[in-house]
């Protein structure tokens, strides 16, 4: 998941008032959709098809980092399955993506001797020399604290010991850690993993270097290892560490956005866009981030086909490539379809997991919000009747911005999500059949109404 | 923790009825101990000294596998601290211990390509060739299932996919996995980690080879990886794995049991023995297994000294070496003190963590149990008034058996304990200041009464 952009969405959801629909009587115009929506939701929630598809997808194509063979296989496998599902216009749209490779990596406390540290190099980190960098550790608890101790940072490995509050707030220390430490002459940087709790669990995610500053090796370490180092230094004990990273970029690789559609029966040129990202980090199996988003948006099309529902507008599914470390799939889509962005009447993204309690977030005009609040009332049976603010996402963002497209996001519970987000523990075991079925039901229901109603959703 | 022997204790606790004391009026003879017990318990529970000592102990001497420098340093450091605490007769008693080294290890699914598997070699495993062993995986769900599929095991890597029920039941698949698979010609064996849940967490622990059977490499893998392999094969997908282990034994190393005492003022030859083990596995920091046992038994002596309490009998603390992969410390103690085993009037071990809800277990004669039930009533203020059955432990077991010594165990909650037992996540973060303080209070209180009362505890 692309942190800054996308998590602002969650912050908005938390801070802004919810648009409540259940106090309103369900408007009569929705009666035309009630039966089909009920059929879609029943088909989704009475089956474990979505969970099983996610399990098979992640079992076969575990970690899917951009440039990897796994990602290429995942795209090819999904295209075949989409064709078998009867989806239309299944095709790939080539995108050149970065090819960063983690390689061998480790961290250890060498004085006091000798203790392994649970770590993951941050995505995009440079390599250390083969023998690593070895230096005294300087723990700091904020950017301000680092600034106050700037004179101590030279030649050291800076450790950002920042307790997790929420993702959008804490992730800043991951993305900008390297530039913050490099400006004061640090030789490496570590961040306490961005997550609330864990079992000695390290979280990866991208680090961003700044032009004009040295690129120093950057890694995340578990909160337990962070605590250990902080306790040792608080007792006056000098802590010396060795950090080994091997991260490097190989030449860009051709990847692709995977597209499938149900062509609209009356207004095929008007697009209801569903999106998720098919790439993942190179640890775990990318089940929650974002295999599950791929499956639940895909399910909307599969279920319509299965139930013989042919919408007025075209429903287009795009499984974007390279969200995690480049967002090149999103950019490529916007480049390709920017001139017809106005034809996109609605865009929905699922890239926040599906854990309960989930919500739907929507961003659009006052008129569109009022309409979507009414549509939301159809989702009351699955507990998602209240549509809040906070639509959008990293992958649908660029096209939505060009076309001023109303956007929606499926937002799983954040607290549990960030326990295993970007870790080896992001596997299908974290996701229940109920949660994935509910998400598929919600996406299918909303998609059907927006694609079918006579007038396009107002901007 | 030594599985079979020690966990039988827990099974007994679960199955046998609790000796309830709270319905009885507290007998008058205890009045003589009430004030001192209250002082000890207050001193323990009004301070975070024990937690801080455990943190410092594990921060400095993280993993303490037998034969490691960390273990030697932990023993030397503890001896110095014991002297500083004013404990008496602080000394080490040499014990030769095995020196198994894990080395480089890994597991991966190579077909379908290519997926890292979260693993830990089992303690004592032999090495594979440097390039590993590569073979098709045969998942089985029990010893009976393996037997039924014996013809398929030859040349394969057998995977025991046995869901966790409780430790004593499930651990059998870890300890005897290698011999079970080797008898049918398997080239390697994997076990689903012995624990209820995790975050892609592998659990180590010892594996036992059988004479006359090939010694095959043995490792534990996470439940998520187990599920993945089982799902793939259930769908008819051939799964091929590569397993690399480097486990090997170097020559035995001299280690030691660490002994400290408060000498009895009237009956110094009568011993109240407190025990825990100072070694650990080589992952995590051995905080719950069994650093916390060392600290809470040690606290009993430190608190008596601090409060000026000089018991009638000698209280002897032994931090045993090499419990995890040899139990040589326990054997050495029994060898050394076997002739005076009858002088041991009571032995208490803490090697089951201290997580709430904890209980005290006792094993002894009917008369001794009745007396201990009365003593237990003094612990009602800290919630440990009911003494159940199930005393003993791997380290006090040998001497207790020789001398028919009444035994007690401090038994932390097992469900949470086995989430991180023998994993990298066994760190001080898993233990609360309240739980460790309560354990120290309980051990100190019981020890004081048993060491002070005029007549020795009946056998």
Write the layout of secondary structure elements.
Two copies of one chain form a homodimer.
Chain A (H helix, E strand, L loop, with lengths): L2 H13 L15 H15 L3 H12 L8 H16 L3 E14 L4 E6 L3 E3 L1 E3 L11 E8 L2 H6 L1 H4 L3 E4 L6 H4 L1 H4 L1 H6 L5 E5 L25 E4 L1 H12 L5 E5 L3 E15 L4 E11 L9 H20 L6 E8 L7 H10 L6 E7 L8 E5 L2 H11 L10 E3 L7 H7 L3 E5 L2 H7 L12 H20 L7
Parallel strand pairs in A: 5-6, 6-7, 7-8, 11-12, 11-13, 13-16, 14-15
Antiparallel strand pairs in A: 1-10, 2-3, 2-9, 4-8, 5-9, 10-12, 14-16
How does this model look, in words?
Chain A is elongated. Chain A folds into two domains: 3-100 and 251-452, Zn peptidases (Aminopeptidase, 3-Layer(aba) Sandwich), CATH 3.40.630.10; 103-246, 3-Layer(bba) Sandwich (Glucose Oxidase, domain 1). Helices cover 36% and strands 23% of the residues of chain A. Chain A is an alpha/beta fold and 459 residues long. Chains A and B meet through helix 3 and helix 10 of A and helix 3 and helix 10 of B.
Question: What's this model, at a glance?
Answer:
With 459 residues, chain A is α/β, with parallel strands linked by helices.
């Amino acid at each position: 998941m692309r942190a800054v952009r996308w998590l602002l969405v969650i912050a908005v959801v938390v801070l802004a008032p919810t648009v409540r629909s259940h106090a309103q009587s369900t408007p009569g115009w929705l009666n035309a959709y009630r039966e089909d929506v009920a059929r879609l939701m029943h088909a989704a929630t009475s089956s474990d098809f979505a969970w099983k598809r996610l399990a098979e997808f992640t079992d076969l194509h575990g970690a899917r980092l951009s440039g990897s063979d796994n990602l290429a296989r995942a795209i090819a496998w999904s295209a075949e399955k989409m064709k078998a599902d009867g989806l239309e216009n299944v095709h790939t749209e080539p995108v050149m993506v970065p090819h960063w490779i983690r390689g061998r990596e480790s961290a250890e406390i060498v004085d006091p001797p000798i203790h392994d540290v649970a770590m993951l190099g941050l995505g995009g980190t440079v390599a250390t020399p083969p023998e690593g960098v070895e230096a005294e550790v300087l723990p700091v608890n904020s950017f301000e604290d680092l600034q106050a101790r700037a004179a101590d940072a030279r030649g050291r490995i800076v450790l950002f010991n920042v307790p997790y509050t929420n993702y959008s707030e804490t992730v800043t220390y991951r993305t900008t850690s390297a530039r913050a430490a490099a400006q004061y002459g640090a030789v490496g940087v570590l961040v306490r993993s961005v997550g609330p709790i864990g079992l000695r669990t390290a979280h990866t995610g991208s680090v961003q270097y700044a032009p004009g500053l040295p690129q120093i090796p950057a890694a995340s370490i578990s909160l337990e290892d962070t605590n250990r180092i902080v306790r040792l230094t608080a007792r006056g004990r000098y802590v010396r560490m060795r950090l080994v990273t091997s991260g490097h970029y190989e030449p860009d690789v051709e990847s692709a956005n995977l597209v499938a559609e149900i062509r609209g029966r009356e207004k095929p040129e008007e697009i209801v866009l569903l999106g998720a990202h098919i790439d993942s980090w190179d640890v775990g199996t990318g089940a929650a981030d974002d295999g599950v988003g791929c499956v639940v948006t895909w399910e909307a099309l599969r279920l319509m086909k299965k139930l013989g529902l042919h919408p007025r507008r075209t429903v287009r599914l795009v499984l974007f490539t390279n969200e995690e470390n480049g967002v090149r799939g999103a950019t490529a889509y916007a480049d390709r379809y920017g001139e017809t962005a106005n034809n996109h009447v609605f865009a929905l993204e699922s890239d926040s997991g599906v854990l309960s309690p989930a919500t739907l977030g929507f961003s659009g005009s006052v008129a569109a919000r009022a309409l979507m609040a009414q549509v939301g009332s159809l989702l009351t049976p699955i507990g998602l009747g209240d549509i809040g603010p906070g639509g959008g996402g990293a992958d649908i963002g660029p096209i939505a911005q060009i076309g001023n497209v109303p956007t929606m996001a499926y937002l799983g519970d954040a607290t549990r999500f960030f326990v295993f987000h970007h870790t080896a523990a992001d596997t299908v075991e974290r996701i229940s059949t109920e949660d994935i079925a509910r998400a598929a039901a919600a996406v299918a229901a909303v998609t059907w109404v927006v694609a079918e109603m006579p007038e396009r959703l107002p901007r």
